[in-house]
Amino acid sequence: MHLTAASTLLFLSTALQASASLLPAWYFDKATSTTNLAAAPTCNGHAELCSKSYADVVYIGAHNSYAVGDGVSDNQAVNITTTLKGGIRLIQGQAHENYGVFRSNESNPSELSLCHTSCLLQDGGSLEDYLRSVRAWLNENPREVLTILMTNPDRVDIRRWEAGFNSTGFNASNTWWPDNKRADGSYGPSPSRDQWPTLGEMIDQDKRVVIFLDYASDRDQVSWILAEFDSIYENPFDQLDLPFNCSVDRGRTEGTLALLNNNKNTQPLGSTVAISTPDRNATSTTNSADGENGIVSTVQRCASETRTRATFVLVDYWDTPAKNGVAEAAARLNNVSRPGSAKDMIPSSASRSIFQHPSALLVPHLAAAFALGLALL
Question: Do you know which SUPFAM superfamilies this protein is assigned to (predicted)?
Answer without folding.
Answer: PLC-like phosphodiesterases (SSF51695)
